[in-house]
TrEMBL record:
The keyword Ribosomal protein does not apply. Residues 118-405 form the NAD(P)-binding domain. This is UDP-glucuronate decarboxylase. It comes from the Eukaryota. It is found in: Golgi apparatus, Golgi stack membrane. The lineage of its organism: Eukaryota, Viridiplantae, Streptophyta, Embryophyta, Tracheophyta. It is a single-pass type II membrane protein. Its EC number is 4.1.1.35. Belongs to the NAD(P)-dependent epimerase/dehydratase family. UDP-glucuronic acid decarboxylase subfamily. GO terms for biological process: D-xylose metabolic process; UDP-D-xylose biosynthetic process.
Length: 442
């Protein structure tokens, strides 16, 4: 008979000292214990130190660069000495590089190019402003109907991908996406503004554009808002003495209305605005026969015609060179003050004194022809620029006798062609050379 093995251990209690296996209880997980095991904490500190050392020793290259367009504008040599201090150029043929100051910009602070529209950018002042904006690296859209502007003033930018030209009259609305609007579009000489005044409607359309896209808007107003002033020199708080129905009123009152609209859009719609009141300005690219006194005198003297002086010639004006004006406009746009600001040269000249400076520059034998004075011609005009000095850090740098030869050189070329007397062309870029050449001739 087979034996049976019957386990009856469950019938007897286990001995307390029994060696039967039982697993250890599981301990809760701890981050601290995890880091201490297998030297994980040490390896973490070593990795952090290596990364810190790498970023500390990495060289910082902060030289700003302009996009390498095949047609980046290079400022012509004749006008570089009239640029404000701090602007530098490097020429590589037609491919120029533009740098600010020493060319060093801290990492992360590189200036972003803006998208800027310049109405009237084909004109005298507008084209010089476009040159500066392009050289700064901005993308520029010129809107101009070429009533007084000239394509020749902008041709050196054709082909540059940052430059656009739209033939358009601002009295009709236009839709653009921009950051800033310089509104210069308006005939500024008596010959033209009496025929086609566009101050109010064009300003209204551009203010509407600024409101829609959130752009900052700069209005180029005029010293004509002071009319025939009873205060001398004129400060921005002076309200003026204007004939509202005179032959010049379409311009005077048009600009005053433009200022009113600008401030209404600022107060009522929150549009960022700036207002500049521009005094007499001269320089290359002025209209040769636009009826303004400096261009009249220069063109007449070059053509061996008598210089026309209206009245007794004792009326006074203040004349600023165009590069000074452009610098003031850009400082105003980039600043934090609405204005208005007087932008002009406080150096005051009578018409006879201006004629004498033109004689000294062009032809000592140039004759003067006196004619009856025009209606509503202001007797005195001189800006008080204390506000611009204090808040914008701006004041004109170029004296009349320094800037006039550069304008004469431009007029000589445009009137007589490139093969005219080379004195102006050879020396126009350096006012000191102009002065030394004249002393040598004397």
């Amino acid at each position: 008979m087979a034996s049976e093995l019957i386990y009856r251990g469950h019938d007897e209690p286990l001995h307390p000292n029994s060696s039967v296996y039982s697993p250890k209880p599981t301990k809760p997980w701890s981050l601290f214990r995890y880091l201490l095991k297998e030297q994980r904490l040490i390896f973490g500190f070593v990795g952090f130190a290596i990364a810190s050392l790498f970023f500390t020793l990495k060289p910082i290259s902060g030289t700003p660069s302009v996009p390498s367009d095949s047609s980046v504008f290079v400022m012509p040599e004749p006008h570089r000495e009239l640029l404000p201090t701090g602007f530098m150029f490097q020429d590589k043929g037609f491919n120029g590089e533009f740098r600010l100051g020493s060319g060093k910009v801290p990492l992360g602070l590189k200036r972003k190019g803006l998208r800027v529209v310049v109405t009237g950018g084909g004109g005298f002042v507008g084209s010089h402003l476009v040159d500066r904006l392009m050289a700064r690296g901005d993308s520029v859209i010129v809107v101009d109907n070429f009533f007084t502007g000239r394509k020749e003033n902008l041709m050196h930018h054709f082909g540059n991908p940052r430059f656009e030209l739209i033939r358009h009259d601002v009295v009709e609305p236009i839709l653009l996406e921009v950051d800033q609007i310089y509104h210069l579009a308006c005939p500024a000489s008596p010959v033209h503004y009496k025929f086609n005044p566009t101050n109010v409607v064009g300003t209204l359309n551009m203010l509407g554009l600024a409101k829609r896209v959130g752009a900052r808007f700069l209005l180029t107003s005029t010293s004509e808002v002071y009319g025939d002033p009873l205060q001398h020199p004129q400060v921005e708080t002076y309200w003026g003495n204007v004939n509202p129905i005179g032959v010049r009123s379409c311009y005077d009152e048009g600009k005053r209305t433009a200022e009113t609209l600008t401030m209404d859009y600022h107060r009522g719609a929150g549009v960022e605005v700036r207002i500049a009141r521009i005094f007499n300005t001269y320089g290359p690219r002025m209209g040769i026969d636009d009826g303004r006194v400096v261009s009249n005198f220069v063109a007449q003297a070059l053509r061996k015609e008598p210089m026309t002086v209206y009245g007794d010639g004792k009326q006074t004006r203040s004349f600023q060179y165009v590069s000074d004006l452009v610098e003031g406009l850009m400082r105003l746009m980039e600043g934090e003050h609405v204005g208005p600001f007087n932008l002009g040269n406080p150096g005051e000249f009578t018409m006879l004194e201006l004629a004498q400076v033109v004689q000294e520059t062009i032809d000592p034998n140039a004759r003067i022809d006196f004619r009856p004075n025009t209606e509503d011609d202001p007797h005195k005009r001189k800006p008080d620029i204390g506000k611009a000095k204090e808040l914008l850090g701006w004041e004109p740098k170029v004296a009349l006798r320094q800037g006039l030869p550069l304008m004469v050189s431009d007029f000589r070329t445009r009137i007589f062609g490139d093969h005219a007397d080379g004195f102006g062309a050879a020396n126009s870029g350096n006012p000191s050379r102009v002065a030394s050449s004249k002393s040598a001739k004397a």
